[in-house]
Amino acid sequence: MRTAQHSHRIMAVHPGAERYGSDRMFAEAVTGFLLAGHDVQVVLPGEGPLGTQLRATGASVDIADMPVLRKSALSPRGLITLPWQMTTGLVQAISLLRSHRPDVVYVSTLTIPTWLLAARLSGVRVVCHVHEAEQAASRVVRTGLAAPLLLTDKVILNSAFSANVLNEAVPALERRGTVVPNGVGAPTGATIAPREKLEGPVKLLFVGRISPRKGPDVAIDALRRLRDTGTDAHLRIVGSVFDGYEWFEEQLRSDAADLIDAGIVTLQGFTDDVWSELAACDIALVPSVMAEPFGNTAVEAVLAQRPVVVSNIGGLPEAVSGIDSADLARAGDALALAEAVRRVIDAWPQMIDRAAAARDRALIRFAPESYRASVTQLVCDLDRGTTTPSTATDVDTQTEGTR
């Protein structure tokens, strides 16, 4: 890894300012750049906890308008305003690039393609770190999202699943991609072991965005099924609503009003202290209805030494592959989720031992230090022109060798 004597000027751009999955991975990447002695200029779309954290680590942070490709952008109203937003965003991006004159641009997620074009037009090498895998979208949408990556010099992906979805959409991208599994930090201090006996209500936990694709409604339905069959269980939902999905939270609260009033379901809202939530639970749930590119929340549960049940879809099975304290359930199926929870409960003594062993493995497999080093090397070797293209299969083999 380079020292400050050989530092690079890196412009790191991210489309959010919060502290969820891809936000945290962006922060880890920026931390890696800084620890390696590089000069990092961060660009975010607004103020928020992410910017506060990055400034505290030593990064300079600019705030700039940037059009983000979300589903709302594909609505009739969105399509009317998108061209203007893209044009103004491109002009502002080029202006920032000319002002800071970076050696390389690190673009986080594929939802801000104007930065890929701005870097190319400015003659600056660019790498995009993909955290998406929109497998359920139409081929036209998948191709439209992936095609701007042809402007990049390198693509980093967080899972083999993400790589496969991307390569199916635009096969020409295959040799640009390198898979780097997310780095997930473990809780500081001593880990609180699961309780030896499940006396009283079984404490279930959902951590994530309140949105249809994350499946909190499926978790509530599964809870009802467990209780209907004699299992005393409570569910805690920790997370805030995704912008534009306020209606979903209202519907969720309405549908679960009886359980909420009885204290059986709790909607906590967002918290930065996910480890305290995990320490207080018995079993974590990741009931995603649509394919996830990775599974940070599942890995966090493993690192907290808690059994976890995840949907058998997308990159989630990949994230918990070889983790004996994890069980799989069919996505969107509340009955299957309830049955998986029941399996964990029935095997509780064995699950306690499995959770301890799984944590030890995850500490190595998802070490943030390895993640930072891998991303930093890819970005800085790109500037030197020494990066050689890799296929996802090649990278998977390399990754296993470092675990």
Describe this structure in words.
The protein has 403 residues and is an alpha/beta fold. The chain folds into 2 domains: 4-183 and 368-401, Glycogen Phosphorylase B (Rossmann fold, 3-Layer(aba) Sandwich); 202-365, Glycogen Phosphorylase B (Rossmann fold), CATH 3.40.50. It has helices at residues 21-35, 49-57, 76-100, 113-121, 139-146, 160-169, 216-228, 246-255, 257-261, 274-279, 296-303, 316-319, 334-346, 348-365, 368-384, 392-401, and strands at residues 9-13, 39-44, 60-63, 104-108, 125-130, 154-157, 177-179, 202-207, 233-238, 265-267, 283-286, 308-311, 326-329. The strands form 2 sheets. A 7-stranded parallel beta sheet has the order 3-2-1-4-5-6-7, with helices on both faces. A 6-stranded parallel beta sheet has the order 10-9-8-11-12-13, sandwiched between helices. Helix 1 (21-35) packs across helix 15.
